[in-house]
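Sanity check

After download, print the first record. It should look like this:
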Amino acid sequence: MNPFLARLRDRDVLVRLNAFILSYFGWITFGVLYGYIGKWSVDVTREFLKLPLTSKSLVVGLLDFTKSLPPLYWLLRMVYYFGFAGSIGFMVLYILLYLCDLQTSDELLARYIMAYAGAGTIYLLFHIHAPHYVYHIPGYSMENTLLTRQEFVLPSLHNTFAAINIITIWKYRRRLGGKALLGVNTLIPFATVLLAHHWIYDVITGFLLAITVSKITSGWAVRIPRCIYTLELKSLGAITMVNLALATLMLLVALDPRKWILLIKSILGQP
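Expected structure tokens:
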């Protein structure tokens, strides 16, 4: 049997895979509920803009510089749209399903959950808005989606997860898959700032959150309830397939297909 497919018949792997999916569902649910519970969050954008490195000239200047180098611009755009859900998906695919490294997978799961909780708590207390939103930069959506909101800026979960992924995958840096994941996640901070999606401070706070949760969760292991082992493997597999389908559906609904069409047309040079 193909080793990859064999992983999908491993109960320990399936339990962890479902845990990753459920944590992803949990964040999407928080994003939806934030429209109601986030109304008490304090908007500190005006005070934030008094800090250095937040001026419109810097933000627009970096964006214009990036656009002046089309290969870099389109590379960073693809990296950004891949960045959040894509980086999670490929990390889980590589660590859990390909390498079947349960210990590292457990640490990664704990880091993701703690990052969600930490960032979510901050967003409930106070928030700022993204640079493209503050300075009304043309070509950017001002609407919220299932994956993110305009208030979810500091700390940047894009950058928090990128740093978590780099820290977690570092042990596999000599492998081809490890090198590829390190490369993509290293580009994410540059994509978020140079494309005016995030402030420099969002990157810094995201890195600090990632370092903190990574230190706390070093050596952490999932404690699987015994009742899970009473489930038939077929039933657990069916639950997993349903959850995967729902996660994929949510991702497709959350992403704006018009952006991808415009991106592909621009790469191909079509009007």
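If your output differs, re-run the checksum step. Summary of this record's structure: Residues 70-98 form the longest helix (29 residues).
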